[in-house]
């Protein structure tokens, strides 16, 4: 049976205890039942408890004419409770899934609003968790997906917290009726073309008629799966620690792992470790596309395989796998002129170059590899640049963007490569700071 409504304020406080030191609690306020109850609960608790500053945020998606009246309703509710309201109009991008596009627009606004040491509170409840579990089950989700909505996660510079996941919709309705609250009924919630509405209005009434505790037991299953996912994450961290050996090319700032360590694991542990690593870098492939990892892993030793994912690519070189995204996937344009080598030079899409020590004589300029370059080395004579790069094991993906310093038509130095990056005799050195574009997802 559902817990008595009288427990709701104390349960909410208990769930929010870890976040009491935040500077601000932003309440995502749609004006519907769930967020209205959450807002009312917090406003009344603030009268007797020392809580962070409360602010409400309403997102106007502009998808239906009925929604134009909702900001006014939300404003009146917030005024009555003494809570400031921010109304944000978002642009929902067209796409195959209107639900997903609206969610992306909404959470983009939430990220903008939530700063460091601030928390966004949303009002999803236990019934929502059950719907999420069934919805993802029907889509063939794995353990991570079936663990449902997390109670808390990072959101931009702050955090998102769902303090009502152990509360049923019936409890929220009971509270709302007890305090004679008014709320918005979104007409789109009855549109059964949307998958979640179909589950809520068609499937769950049948399930709960036969199994009255279906919502509670499914939410409990999501909690079990969440615990299982935590164990898988811990295993992944152990495996990734073993594969995170030091590379002589760590200075590139490109995430990489040792392939042989990963390949020694079982297939399931490989997928678990690699997906955990990639989850901070890109949207993950579905189950049908994980064969790309096997092809990438098993390519011939002298091959240079690439596994293309949603937000970047995995490359293989020097016995390691490397994650490339952003400007690392773009060919840098020709380097600009370098009129004063005593000053650093910003290379478009390719970091920063600087020259330390005594500047070589003559006009200097920067180029990138085109093939056929030759370099003169003390005691070794003229050597092909390609052979010199092979000797030093320079990964293929970086060779075309290594800055080359020329004096006229003579190749003087290759930036950053020991023994090729300057003149010990003349006391100068060509230093390159590769592009430091954020390699991860926001």
CATH class of the largest domain: Alpha Beta
- Tally of DSSP β-strands: 19
Structural class of the helix and strand makeup?
A: alpha+beta
- Percent helix, as a range, is 25-40%
What is the name of the CATH superfamily of the largest domain? HUPs
Keywords: ATP-binding, Cytoplasm, Ligase, Nucleotide-binding, tRNA processing
EC number: 6.3.4.19
Protein name: tRNA(Ile)-lysidine synthase
Family: Belongs to the tRNA(Ile)-lysidine synthase family.
What does this structure look like?
It is found in: Cytoplasm. This is tRNA(Ile)-lysidine synthase. The protein is of the alpha+beta class. It has helices spanning 8-16, 33-45, 70-81, 98-113, 126-138, 143-146, 169-178, 195-210, 214-243, 259-263, 267-278, 291-298, 385-391, 396-399; strands at 24-28, 53-60, 85-89, 118-121, 152-155, 158-161, 256-258, 306-309, 312-317, 320-324, 345-346, 352-357, 364-367, 374-377, 381-384, 404-407, 410-414, 422-423, 428-433. The chain has three domains: 5-227, Rossmann fold (3-Layer(aba) Sandwich); 244-324, Chorismate Mutase Domain, subunit A; 345-433, no CATH class. Helix 2 (33-45) links the parallel strand 1 and strand 2. The model is unreliable at 1-5 (pLDDT under 50).
Write the layout of secondary structure elements.
Elements: H1 8-16, E1 24-28, H2 33-45, E2 53-60, H3 70-81, E3 85-89, H4 98-113, E4 118-121, H5 126-138, H6 143-146, E5 152-155, E6 158-161, H7 169-178, H8 195-210, H9 214-243, E7 256-258, H10 259-263, H11 267-278, H12 291-298, E8 306-309, E9 312-317, E10 320-324, E11 345-346, E12 352-357, E13 364-367, E14 374-377, E15 381-384, H13 385-391, H14 396-399, E16 404-407, E17 410-414, E18 422-423, E19 428-433
Parallel strand pairs: 1-2, 1-4, 2-3, 4-6
Antiparallel strand pairs: 5-6, 7-10, 8-9, 9-10, 11-12, 12-19, 13-16, 14-15, 16-17, 18-19
Helix pairs in contact: 2-7, 5-8, 5-9, 9-11
């Amino acid at each position: 049976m559902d817990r008595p409504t009288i427990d709701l304020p104390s349960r909410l406080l208990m769930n929010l205890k870890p976040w009491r030191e935040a500077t601000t609690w932003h309440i995502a306020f749609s004006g519907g039942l769930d967020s209205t109850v959450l807002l009312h609960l917090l406003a009344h608790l603030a009268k007797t408890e020392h809580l962070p500053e409360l602010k409400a945020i309403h997102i106007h998606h502009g998808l239906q004419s009925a929604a134009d009246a909702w900001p006014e309703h939300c404003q009146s509710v917030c005024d009555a409770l003494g809570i400031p309201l921010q109304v944000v109009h978002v642009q929902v991008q067209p796409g195959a899934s209107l639900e997903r596009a609206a969610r992306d627009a909404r959470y983009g606004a939430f990220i903008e609003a939530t700063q460091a040491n601030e928390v966004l509170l949303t009002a999803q409840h236990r019934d929502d968790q059950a719907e999420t579990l069934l919805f993802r089950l029907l889509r063939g989700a794995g353990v991570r997906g079936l663990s449902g909505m997390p109670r808390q996660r990072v959101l931009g510079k702050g955090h998102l917290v769902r303090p009502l996941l152990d509360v049923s919709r019936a409890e929220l309705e009971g509270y709302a009726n007890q305090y004679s609250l008014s709320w918005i009924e979104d007409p789109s919630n009855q549109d059964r073309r949307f998958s979640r509405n179909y589950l809520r209005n068609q499937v769950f009434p049948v399930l709960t008629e036969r199994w009255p505790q279906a919502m509670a037991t499914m939410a409990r299953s999501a909690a079990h799966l969440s615990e299982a996912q935590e164990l898988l994450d811990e295993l992944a961290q152990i495996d990734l620690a073993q594969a995170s050996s030091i590379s002589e090319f760590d200075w590139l700032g490109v995430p990489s792992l040792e392939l042989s360590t990963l390949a020694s694991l079982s297939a399931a542990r490989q997928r678990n470790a690699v997906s955990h690593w990639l989850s901070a870098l890109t949207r993950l492939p579905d189950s049908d596309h994980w064969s790309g990892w096997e092809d990438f892993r098993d390519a011939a030793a002298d091959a240079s395989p690439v596994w293309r994912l949603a937000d970047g690519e995995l490359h293989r070189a020097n016995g390691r796998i490397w994650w490339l995204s952003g400007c690392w996937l773009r060919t840098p344009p020709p380097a600009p002129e370098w009129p004063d080598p005593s000053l650093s030079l910003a290379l478009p899409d390719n970091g920063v170059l600087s020259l330390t020590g005594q500047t070589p004589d003559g006009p200097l300029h920067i180029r990138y590899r085109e093939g056929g370059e030759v370099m003169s080395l003390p005691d070794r004579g003229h050597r092909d640049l390609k052979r010199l790069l092979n000797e030093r094991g320079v990964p293929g993906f970086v060779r075309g963007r290594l800055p080359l310093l020329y004096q006229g038509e003579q190749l003087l130095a290759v930036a950053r490569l020991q023994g090729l990056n300057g003149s010990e005799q003349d006391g100068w050195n060509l230093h390159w700071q590769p592009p430091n574009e954020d390699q991860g997802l926001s």
